[in-house]
Amino acid sequence: MMPDSNFLSTPLWLIEILHIVTLSLHLIAMNFLFGGIIILLFGNFDDKWNNPFVQKYIKLLPNAMAMTVTFGVAPLLFVQLVYSKQIYAASIISGWLWLMIFVVVMIAYYFLYALSFKQTTAIRQKIYLSIAFACLLYVSYIYSSVFALAEKPDLYKLLYAENQGGTIINPDVGSYLFRWLHMVTGAVTVGGFFVAFIGRKNETAFKVGKDFYLWGMVAAIATGFAYMMGLGELMKPFMKSPAIWLVTISFILSLGSLHFLFKKRFAIASSMLTVSFIAMIYTRHVLRKLSLVGFYDPSEMTVRIAWSPFLFFLLFFLLMVATVWYMLRLYFGKQE
Amino acid sequence: MNYPFWDIDIGYGIIMAAIAVIHVFVSHFAIGGGLYLVIAETIARKNNDQLKLQFLEKLSKFFVLVSVVFGALTGVGIWFIIGLLNPAATEVLIHNYVWAWAAEWTFFVIEIIAALLYFYGWKTLSAKNHIIIGWIYFVSAWMSLFIINGIVTYMLTPGDWVVTGNFWDGYFNPTFWSSLWLRTGICIMLGGVYALFVASRYKADDFKKRIVRFNSLWAIGGLAIMIPTMLWYVSAIPKEIVDAALEANLTPIKAMNATYIYAAFLAFVLVVFGFLIPKKYNIVVGVVAMVLALGWFGEYEWMRESIRKPYVITNYMYANGIDVANAEKYQEEGLLESIEFQTADKPADLFRRACRSCHTFDGYKPLKPAFDGTDETFIAQIIMGTHVIRANMPPFVGTEEEAQMVASHIYKQIDKRHISEIYNLDGIALGKKVYDLRCGKCHIFGGFNDKSETLLGSTEEDLGDILDMAGDFADEMPEFTGDEKERKALIDYIMSLNEKEKN
After folding, report:
1. Share of chain A above pLDDT 90, in %
2. What does the pLDDT look like over B92-101, one tens digit per residue?
3. Which CATH number fits domain B419-502: 3.90.45.10, 3.90.960.10, 3.40.50.620, 1.10.760.10?
4. Is the ipTM of this complex over 0.85?
5. Are A316 and B3 in contact (CB < 8 Å)?
6. Which of A1, A9, A101 sits opposite B80 (nearest CB)?
7. Domains B335-413 and B419-502 fall in the same CATH topology
């Protein structure tokens, strides 16, 4: 008998927690990056391309990109572990578009680095940043479309029967348009938070950040609501799941964080925002499960507990936290 | 086979190699370069060698860009591409080794943050702290190699895992340690060759002499580790894998020999230009050394990938994603049954599953020239015998009817004129072509599964008998289905060899 590979070596809940934690980190970095770029492009700063705050934020972008990619790897691993069939199938249907993600990210990276190394003319800055924006918009759209397709096994089977070349994009745009827009507006919202926070000592920057935070949130609530309304058959089970409570809580917390941000009480505003953020991610997770009901239930996957590999990981994970903390302290702490 | 098949015009081997070679090159370089930087920095600080510190700071800028951006993203690229090209195998890797991948990721996080801080910290950190961050970078980068090495080597030599399914049995497998130290040597060598490249653009003064010598010594140190560990690695590969390659698939053996040649040339360049006449180490030499290092590495990875044929995970899964455990079942019950994603064209579905991941029709490893001018019966019989062809291919795991279907699919695409017309050949030359097409896939004179003894000792009449009975020699051997003209030409060709043999 050969070993069967279709199993989990730790309980599902453990993997789900890790998935949600690492995905949150990824999305926070992504929002800093993507939301930040949108705000820099469309925000109303004085003498924008010479504004010291804008220059400061621009210098942070490549690092935010590095963190986005780095923290993106882990959740992709965990989601592929649990939903391998669905995710591989959906990504193969859009194969070329999916593969292009890493090329497009490389292009965005290039322009962000070019921007951050030395300040160039206003028009150049605008063009570079716009290119990076277009690249990231592409990435976000492909992610939304592929992950939405992964929740529709009937559809991807049908699509495959017609085209095997990996050049199609999920045609059921209605099922993910608002989901995607919700992610984008959410990024603008959180980006607004970062802008307000980093620019807290600079009145215009704070105001731009605050405004984007407010209007981004309005837009995110609107698109989120539209997405929910479009759930169709999923609506009923969704309303009955604990996720609906989470949505409500995160809605209230978001409003609360808005209030505190306006008062520049960042600690409490960011705590509320974080909790609301994680609740949203968990909601996303519940929705995926609901849409796969009848096709696949991860809790039915064979679990063959083997703790030693997990402990191997855990040890290194703790080491990572300690080392990163130590390095940041060396860097930002007082120099000897 | 629960996955759709990504049907693209580019050969899978090409697209995989394109991304993988860049990635392994950059990622190993990122490790060796890290060690180089921190050690060179320590020495330079001790001697208060400002010129060298400037050199290092400059080096680290590009270095961080390359490792953080290029290394990380091509790594993500590999992750994407294996999921597209071989989702079944990727699934096996993820399910068995998820905690190893996750542990690797923890070092990846440390590595990226350390690289950024090292780079930004030249001016802002104290010498001591800067060096500490440099060491953290190197150690975490090397640890990520340590971890991924277990998974990469597992694919070629899964060891007892195939029986036990135990994580550690597959992880610390027979080639784990040799591969780890070999790759460490590669890292060191690459770090040196890269630092040489940067130094090559400097003007030929005393500083250049000093730095080129230092860098060459470094790279030679890497090579010196690589040579014994390469021998160790090769000897750790189980004998049956090497024997199978020696017998049927010379690609990895050729690649292995090429690595020795590249290493020799590289050593020559390093000793002569790097050590004896360092001031002459100009940009051309710098590029040549980089190309040689890349060539070495490309051949090494090519060997590792190709010696694994017909498997992607030795003894567990074939390279086309078919699991060995169920092969017999498919052969009895049919392969189509198990293909979850189907189109209206069933023969094409079977073809994709069985052959398409390694072959195209007229691009990479093309099938068209292998079958042009032959017939459907022949093609079907070849399909039933792919595992005895000189290429270490997986067996076709479907029924005879399904082989027929695949053959009809292939037959549709090939040139249907007579062989003599396609290649414009006659007489003995035609006979040689017929031999190559109809026999040479499995029997090479003086080579793989040689039949000279039987064939070259025969009379024309015997040869005619052999062709008549061709289908009876072995289950896998096809009948002779060529027409009279081919038959005559083939016999004439073999008789002509016969004459040569006698003279």
Report:
1. 83
2. 999 999 999 9
3. 1.10.760.10
4. yes
5. no
6. A101
7. yes
